[in-house]
Each structure stands twice: as C-alpha cells, then as structure tokens.
Amino acid sequence: MKKAEIYGFVGSIGTVIFYLIYLLWAFTPDHLLRRIGISWYPEKYWALALPSFLIFTVIAIQVIYQGLNMMYTKPFNSIYSTQDEHSRSYHEFQSISKESLPEIYDIPVSVINDLLYYRNKNSKVQEKSSNEELNFLSVRKAMSSLE
Fold this sequence. Notes:
mainly alpha
C-alpha cells in the first residue's frame, strides 16, 4: 500500500470517529455525561457556534476572493483584457516556405466573435484585408473540421 492510501484511510476513519464524538457531546444531556464520568466539556453553546462560525468564514472567504478578483480585473475596453506581454500576433511571424507548418499565434478576439456569433455557417466568408485579422476561410475550415 502507498503512504497516501494509508493516510487517507486513517484520516477518513479519524473524521468519522471525531464526528460521532461531536454528535454524542452535542445531543447527550449534561446529567448523562456526568453520570458516565465526563465532568469537563465545553458548553453546548459551542456545538452550534463553531459550525456557524466555520460556515460564515468559508462564505466570507469566497465573497472576499470574488471581490478581489473583480477589483483587479481590467475593464472590458482595456487592451490588457485580450493581450499581455506573452501574446503573439499573426504579423510577427514569417513562414519559411509554403509547405512548412505555420507558427503558433493568438487569434484576435474580433475574429473569434465574428466566426462564432455574427456569421451564418452557409454564408461565404471573405478574407479581411487588415494584417491584424486572420484569413477567415482558413479559420473557418479549421473550426468546421472540429465540429
């Protein structure tokens, strides 16, 4: 057996035992616990307070995390929403020959939006003249081969 399997097994058994002890402590009346010989234990208030605090903490962490993500996200009209220092545009590369494989580069968002949302699949797609835009026909062929 692997160490991870043993640790997982012991952890799951320990969790079940701890949960059963917690339930016994939370639902057993105080006079029965004293009769068994257990004289010191936390107040029953903590049987509800600790899980409530834990749930609130988890929810607060998620809300804070989402808030921080929204605070540090660039606006939609920012160029940094679609490009960064690692972006590679189409016009940066020159193929060695017509038979060689093209370099890997980022497809502009406008091309993807045009292909996915604005073009009818049966319409004839024409090539854009701008260097920044890709050849729609080759991208359309690549996308139709994936479907």
